[in-house]
Structure formats: structure tokens, C-alpha cells
Amino acid sequence: MKYTLLGCLSALMVSPSMASGSLWNMTPGVTEISQQVFGLHMTIFYICCVIALLVFGVMIYSLIRHRHSKGVTPANFHESTKVEIAWTVVPFLILIGMAVPATSTLIAMEDPSDAELTVQITGSQWKWHYQYFGHDVGFYSLMSTTQEQIENQAEKGANYLLEVDKPLVIPANRKVRFLMTSDDVIHSWWVPAFAVKKDANPGFINEAWTKVTTPGTYRGQCAELCGKDHGFMPVVVEVLPEAEFDAWLVEQKQMANAAADAEAASLGQVLTLDESMALGEQIYIGRCAACHQPNGMGLPGVFPAIKASPVALGDIGAHIDIVANGKPGTAMQAFAAQLSLKELAAVVTYQRNAFDNNTGDVVQAADVNGGSVAPQAATPAPAGALSDEVTAVASATAEAAAVPSEPEPAAEQPLDLASAMSLGEQVYLGRCAACHQANGMGLPPAFPAINGSAIAKGEIDQHIDVVANGRAGTAMAGFASQLSRKELAAVVTYQRNAWDNQTGEVIQTADVDAVAGQ
């Protein structure tokens, strides 16, 4: 108690300016909202200190003043109406006094109206994608800390794990609205200096905003456990003076035009094996090594190896397709919108010749384009800026994307246990293993285990409902809109029969229809 009193007395004697500079306290940030949050934090802190002083002060005084050694006879009373009213009314008034400024700050934090710029922020394992509404500017932002630093083979930089190749750029003194979503799992975009921390949920749009008055570079990171490389997903925001930001937008559009022209020119280029391997290695280390490992060995059970894989040693067209368009039902992303035709060709070449694969194949940009892969479109150019050749390719791709997929046949062959387990394992590793682990043991208490769980061994309809529709109030997302009926049936079958569950039950698409209403 003595140290508590001394701490509170010290806190009360510290000025707000001194408190804001303390290494042990929150920082006031660089926005009006962040300063309101800091002010609210300090107000509540001081109220708590006053309460502690009064309560412990009365306790200590009573213990000393009425101690037994002084011969004090304890009073014998109870049920004092005045005391009961006092200890009900006083805390109520204190809570009201705390709630008024807190509510005002929360309302201000959730008011993105009258924004002068809107940026869509999309989380993806493990990078951020920024799209500027109304300006045809967009790009991916990846961590730029080198693998040598991460593996302790080089001295760590000043911004270790908090540096990116392309920061988000916003103007000073303008209200910027953020629309947060995700391509895969739950992420959280967090910049402490702005007092902005908002979850990016797949299938949902969350809103936040900021208005920064001080130009500079501000750093943050993903604040939601999102998988293997959660710790390698930094956020960097560069705030420019208004005139410099406007000039930056013009520069980005010029770069988009130049990139479109370069895409068209790359169709006629022929790279040598050495040139492709050099470029492909850069792309592989930056985009693929996080999952498939720098040595190409992958993480068995989660991410397949590139070394000696049937994809890297098989049909070139199929290899290009999986790198460019991804693989539904797995963690394999589509890179067609993230890489240029030349980069796609180089990384496929690298995968087919590195790690003792040595196929000798050299894939060119024209091969990638011939596989109906759209040119890179992270920063779309204005109408008329694309060459006729690239425009024709983009149009053909758009038409292909616009063709609705064929509906699943009304009469389907029943799944047997072996085929359901095979498909279910693929879906599980791609969609579920990041949270529940490849061995089904989960990450208690954040993510429950599937192995031996009451859901996986319980009622089938309840199990299907949780997988298809999610569970409100938890991190469990609904997969009804992400997986086909067959995939849902297969992954539920897998969960009910993998590890030590072994229920022997085979879920069919009709079972999914009855519960999920697909």
C-alpha cells in the first residue's frame, strides 16, 4: 500500500507534458483523434489515482487511528442507509464523468464523413494492398527487411521488420477515409501515431479515418494473429505536404502508363536463362519464400515443396496458371495482379530450374500472355493510354472473367471417404490450418483444437453450420461464400475423420444444402 500511495502521489505531481514524453506511457500521436485518446487516457488515469489515494488513505488512517494497541473498542453497527447511498451514488457519478469524454472520443473516431480521399486497404497473407478511389492508383506493400537480417546473417537496420518497399502515401491536412477488408484471414491495420487500429475481415468492410497535420513517416504493423508470417506484415505511411502529394499522384499515373507500355514491349522480349534466373530469384525470395522456403523445400503438410514438385517439373502451362491465378481451396494466391508478365515468366523459370529441378525451360512474357493471364493492373492507366495489343488482351481477360461459372450439376455422385478426405485435406490446409494448425491441435485459447473437439465429434448439422456460416463473436469466419458445396462437405468430412476423430462419417453435398441453404 505504501508503494501504491507513493506511485499515485508521483503520478499526480507529473505534468501532462512530462507524462506524454515518458517511455512508460502512451504517446499523444500526430492527429487530433490520437491526442484526444491520449487526453482521455490521462484523465482516466488521474481519476484512478485520486480514487486510490482516497480509498487507501482512509484505509491506512483507519488502521492507524483505530488500532487495537490504543485500546479502541470496535463499533458494532450495520445497515447504514447513508453509507449505502453514498457508495452507490458516488461511483455512479464517477462513471458518468468518465463516460462523457469517452463517448465523445469514440463517436469522433467512428465518423469518416466529409473525407477528401478514400483508400481501400486489403490485407493478404502477408502484405497490404492499397487502392486510391477516384485516382486509378493502387499497389501492394511488402516488407523490405532482408532475409539475411531476419536470419541474423547481417546487422539489423534501424527499422528492422518495420520497413516496406512501397509505403502508403497520404496528404497532410486532409481527411483520409480508410476502407478495410481482407482477401483471406482476419488482419488488423494499426498505426499507433494515428490512433487507428481496425480489423480487416474477409467479406466485410470496416471504416476508419485520419487527418495528419505533421508530414513524416509513421510505422505500424498487423495487430491480429494472421498466420505464419504475422510478424512480417508491417505498415508504413508517408505523409506528404498537399502539393507534394498531388505531384506524387501525377507521377504514379505516369508510372502506370510506362508500366503498361513496358508490358506491351515485354511480349516481344526474349530473356536468356541467366537473365530469367536472376530476376526470378528476386521475385521468389520476395513473394514465394515465406511459404515455400528459400531452399524450395516448403513446409510439409502446410505449404508444398517446389523442389522436385510435379508442378515445377510438369506442364509449363499448368505451372504458369497456378502462379498467375492461384489454386482455389488452398493458400496459393494469384499473382497476376501483383507481378508483371515479365516477372511472372521469370519466377516460373526460376522455379523450374532452381533447387535441382534443372528443366532447362525458359518461360517468356509471351508464354504467360498466351496463357490468358492479364497484364499487371495494380495501377490502371487512363483510357487510351494502353497500346492496342495490351488493350485487346485485357478485354479478352475481362470477357473471360465475366462468363459465369457453370452451375454444379443437380445430380452428383456421392463422395466416398477416400475422395472426401483427399479433397478435404487440401481445403483444410489452405483455409483452416493457419488457425487450427495442420495437426488439428489449434492454438488454445485463441483458436480451438479440431482434434477431439465436441463439434467434430458431435452433431453433423451443427458442425456444417459452424463451417458454413461461422460463429458470431469469435474469429470463426463463414466459408459458405468461399467454398463450393462439395468442398464444404469434404472439409467437414476431413475434420470428422482426421487425427484421432475417426467418426467414419462421410458428409454429402445434400447434407450441406440442408444446413447452409446453398
Automatic annotation (TrEMBL):
SUPFAM superfamilies given in the database record: Cupredoxins, Cytochrome c, Cytochrome c oxidase subunit II-like, transmembrane region
Membrane is among the record's keywords: yes
Membrane topology, as annotated: Multi-pass membrane protein
Cross-referenced InterPro entries: CcO_II, CcO_II-like_C, Copper_CuA, Cupredoxin, Cyt_c-like_dom, Cyt_c-like_dom_sf, Cyt_c_oxidase_su2, Cyt_c_oxidase_su2_TM_dom
EC number(s) per entry: 7.1.1.9
Subcellular location: Cell membrane; Membrane
Domain of life: Bacteria
Cofactor binding note from Swiss-Prot or TrEMBL: Binds a copper A center.
Cofactor(s) required for function per UniProt: Cu cation
Residue span(s) of domain Cytochrome oxidase subunit II copper A binding: 114-251
Ranges where the Cytochrome c domain occurs: 275-355, 419-499
Record's keyword annotation contains Lipid metabolism: no
Reaction catalysis annotation: 4 Fe(II)-[cytochrome c] + O2 + 8 H(+)(in) = 4 Fe(III)-[cytochrome c] + 2 H2O + 4 H(+)(out)
Keywords: Copper, Electron transport, Heme, Iron, Membrane, Metal-binding, Respiratory chain, Signal, Translocase, Transmembrane, Transmembrane helix, Transport
UniProt signal peptide: 1-19
All residue ranges annotated as the Cytochrome oxidase subunit II transmembrane region profile domain in the record: 18-113
Transmembrane segments: 43-64, 85-109
Family recorded in the similarity comment: Belongs to the cytochrome c oxidase subunit 2 family.
Function: Subunits I and II form the functional core of the enzyme complex. Electrons originating in cytochrome c are transferred via heme a and Cu(A) to the binuclear center formed by heme a3 and Cu(B).
Protein name per its UniProtKB record: Cytochrome c oxidase subunit 2
Source organism (scientific name): Ferrimonas pelagia
